[in-house]
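Technical note accompanying the year-one report. For the benefit of new consortium partners, we illustrate the data format agreed upon in the data management plan: each record pairs a sequence with a structure-token string. No post-processing was applied to the example shown here.
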Amino acid sequence: MEVYVLDSNFFIQAHRLHYPLDVAYGFWNKVKQLAEKGKITSIDKVKYELYDKNDELETWCVDNLPEDFFKDTSHVIAEYGQVSAWAISKSNHYLQNALNEFLDANEADAFLVAYALADLNNRIIVTQEISHPARQNKVKIPDACNALSVRYANTIDMFRRLGETF
């Protein structure tokens, strides 16, 4: 079964820009339903990024997402090695700070790609990032996905592919 793996910016941008928790109940109810059905998930590194501000988004996640929503990434170390090898192979393009940030063990981006890479046929990353292969100061998730044949979508594309409305 295909499952959509959500980047932290799915939650953060939705809450801050497009679908505030106090206004867009339909959006957040749909997220909760999809999580309960196992159609969407995320990883432990995203949880750490979301749970570091002690804000209403964190409270919503704690109160509404299933306990097993954020998956452990300790078993995707081999795939993380593949993602790292790709990033390092691009050291003539990306600035060292960009590579350091992307490969930081506490950051979610490379682990999201690794998690999806571990089950290419069933996992699709959902991120609001846009491919920008010429950029040198930031490794974008879509560029890593394109290089490693990992599928990705943005929020609205995910809802369309799932045939969901809110």
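Partners are asked to follow this layout when depositing records. The radius of gyration is 16 Å.
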